[in-house]
Specification:
The chain starts with 8 loop residues before the first helix and ends in a 14-residue tail after the last helix. Helix content is about 70%, strand content about 0%. By secondary structure, the protein is mainly alpha-helical. The chain folds into two domains: about 1-55, Arc Repressor Mutant, subunit A (Orthogonal Bundle), CATH 1.10.10; about 65-200, Tetracycline Repressor, domain 2 (Orthogonal Bundle), CATH 1.10.357.
Length: about 210
C-alpha cells in the first residue's frame, strides 16, 4: 500500500496536490506546457506514476486543477489587497500591479495557445476563473466613475482593452531588475487610459 502522507487520507491528498502543483509551477515557468509530462511531474514530486494518475489521470486534468487552485488563491489575494485601498485609483493601481506580477511569476500558455491545447469544456472551466477578476475590475471602474476619479465610460469597452494590455507577456519580459519600473509604467498607462485625474502614490501600494 502506498505511504499515506500527513496521517490521514485527506491530509495525504492535500500533500500530494501541494507537491505536484509546486513541481508543475516550476516546470511551466522553465519549460512551458507542451514540454511537460506526467511522468516527469511524478519523478520531480517524488511520487510513483500510479500514485499521480490516481489524482490526475491526464495532463489536462492536472492543469485544470492547478489553475483552479491558483485562481482561488489569487482572487483571495486580490480582494484583500484592493480592500486595503480606500481610493478607486489606488485600487486600480493595485489591480494592475498584481495582474502583472502574477503574469511574471507564471508561464501558462497565452489564451489562444491554451485554448488549442485543451478540450473546449476544459478551456471553459479555466476561463471561468477570470469572471471574479473581471467583476472586481468592473466594480473598481464603476466606483471610480461614481467618485469622479475618472469619466464614466462603457466598461464593456474598457475592460477587454485593459485585460488585453495586462495579458501581454511582452510587457513583463524584461530583465528582473527592470520589472517593477515596467509595472509602474503600466500602472500609469492604465490610469491615464481611463482618464484618472490624479495618479496615486506608488508608495501606498500594499499589493
Amino acid at each position: 500500500m502506498p505511504k499515506i502522507l500527513g496521517g490521514s487520507i485527506e491530509a495525504h491528498r492535500r500533500e500530494v496536490r501541494a507537491r505536484v502543483f509546486e513541481v508543475l509551477r516550476a516546470q511551466l515557468y522553465e519549460r512551458g506546457f507542451d514540454a511537460i509530462t506526467l511522468s516527469g511531474i511524478a519523478a520531480d514530486a517524488g511520487l510513483g506514476r500510479t500514485a499521480l494518475y490516481n489524482h490526475f489521470p491526464d495532463k489536462e486534468s492536472l492543469l485544470i486543477a492547478f489553475v483552479e487552485d491558483e485562481a482561488n488563491r489569487y482572487v483571495d489575494r486580490l480582494t484583500e489587497a484592493i480592500a486595503a485601498q480606500d481610493d478607486p485609483a489606488g485600487q486600480l493601481a493595485t489591480f494592475v500591479r498584481l495582474q502583472l506580477r502574477v503574469l511574471a511569476e507564471y508561464h501558462l500558455p497565452p489564451g489562444t495557445a491554451l485554448e488549442s491545447a485543451l478540450a473546449p469544456s476544459a478551456y471553459r472551466r479555466i476561463s471561468a476563473h477570470a469572471d471574479p477578476i473581471t467583476a472586481c475590475l468592473r466594480d473598481i471602474l464603476a466606483e471610480g466613475a461614481a467618485a469622479g476619479r475618472w469619466p464614466a465610460e462603457d466598461t464593456g469597452v474598457l475592460i477587454p482593452m485593459i485585460t488585453a494590455a495586462l495579458g501581454s507577456r511582452q510587457v513583463i519580459e524584461v530583465p528582473s531588475e527592470q520589472l517593477e519600473r515596467t509595472i509602474e509604467a503600466a500602472v500609469r498607462f492604465v490610469l491615464r487610459a481611463v482618464g484618472a485625474r490624479e495618479l496615486p502614490d506608488p508608495a501606498l501600494d500594499l499589493g
